[in-house]
């Protein structure tokens, strides 16, 4: 039996996915939650075989969950099911050890098959997205990405500096680097473009 933890912030979709997966004779959804922090707590409590997660959720994103699983060396494989067909997201997901990356518009039967393949040690990735991921480079480093995300959430340079224990000048330098690398004129445009390309 493949034991699955489901993390999806849209309640209707979460219920539908859980119901579909529970119809499979060899798959059991042991828990279904609506945000990243709850998913992290349930991962430790239930110790499932697989985490099936969306990318964008309150608290922790699906990629951040995968990074935590990787850092803590938990024996849990991660499959992302998302609407975001963005090469930047896929590249970051793979770096975080994700074994599956499927789009929500794929046929439902593909998900159960993908979970079986991942549980058997394989990887399942949308082929067109995989090609796009390797043909487009990610210009941002992790610090620039983090600071740009905070700036996009409305934090000032002073707020970011305080939160990350950096000087305001250092924060401005990172923002300036990110703006330059993305070829835009200000932090708002940089945040918008980075989100559009799946870099955040």
Automatic annotation (TrEMBL):
GO molecular function: DNA binding
Superkingdom assignment: Bacteria
Keywords in alphabetical order: DNA-binding, Phosphoprotein
Naturally occurring in which organism (per UniProt): Pseudoxanthomonas indica
InterPro entries: CheY-like_superfamily, Sig_transdc_resp-reg_C-effctor, Sig_transdc_resp-reg_receiver, Tscrpt_reg_LuxR_C, WalR-like
Presence of the UniProt keyword Ligase in the record: no
4-aspartylphosphate sites (modified residues): 54
One of the Pfam families matching this protein, by short name: Response_reg
Keyword check for NADP: no
Name of the protein: Two-component system, NarL family, response regulator DesR
Residue ranges occupied by any HTH luxR-type domain in the UniProt entry: 133-198
Any one GO BP annotation for this protein: regulation of DNA-templated transcription
């Amino acid at each position: 039996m493949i034991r699955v933890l489901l993390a999806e912030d849209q309640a209707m979709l979460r219920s539908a996915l859980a119901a579909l997966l529970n119809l499979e004779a060899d798959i059991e959804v042991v828990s279904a939650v609506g945000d990243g922090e709850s998913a992290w707590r349930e991962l430790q409590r239930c110790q499932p075989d697989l985490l099936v997660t969306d990318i964008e959720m309150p608290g922790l994103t699906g990629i951040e969950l995968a990074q935590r699983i990787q850092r803590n060396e938990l024996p849990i494989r991660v499959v992302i099911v998302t609407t975001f067909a963005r090469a930047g997201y896929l590249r970051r997901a793979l770096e975080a050890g994700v074994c599956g990356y499927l789009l929500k518009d794929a046929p439902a039967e593909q998900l159960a098959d993908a979970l079986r393949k991942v549980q058997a040690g394989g990887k399942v990735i949308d082929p067109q997205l995989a090609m796009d991921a390797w043909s487009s480079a990610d210009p941002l480093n992790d610090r620039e990405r983090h600071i740009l995300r905070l700036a996009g959430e409305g934090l000032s340079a002073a707020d970011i500096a305080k939160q990350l224990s950096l000087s305001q000048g250092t924060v401005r330098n990172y923002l300036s680097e990110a703006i330059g690398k993305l070829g835009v004129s200000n932090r708002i445009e940089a945040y918008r473009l980075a989100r559009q390309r799946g870099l955040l």
